[in-house]
Write a structure and sequence with these properties.
- By secondary structure, this protein is mostly helical.
- It contains four helices and no strands.
- Helices cover 44% and strands 0% of the residues.
- The longest helix has 17 residues.
């Protein structure tokens, strides 16, 4: 077995250490909202109805499926109908 060199440390380098005492929670939250990030803030009463984001996504997908299924099918008018109306 090779011996480890003396003084070697498996910790991160000094430039990669983070001082959590200076960290701020939600520091970039307002900027993300202003720039149009994929963050959606639910109203408190709506948030109570869903336990996590997966449930919200499932509900929205089912609503979208219902909306797409209930769309009216528009029929294209035929040329013969136009000719009859013009005559």
């Amino acid at each position: 077995m090779k011996r480890r060199p003396e003084g070697r440390n498996d910790d991160l380098r000094r430039e990669y250490t983070i001082d959590y005492a200076k960290a701020a929670r939600g520091k970039y939250f307002r900027r993300l909202l202003k720039e149009g990030a994929n963050v959606v803030v639910l109203e408190p009463d709506v948030a109570k109805a869903f336990r996590d984001s997966a449930v919200v996504n499932d509900a929205l997908r089912s609503l979208l499926a219902i909306a797409l299924a209930s769309r009216r099918v528009t029929t294209r008018s035929s040329r013969s109908a136009r000719r009859r109306a013009a005559a």
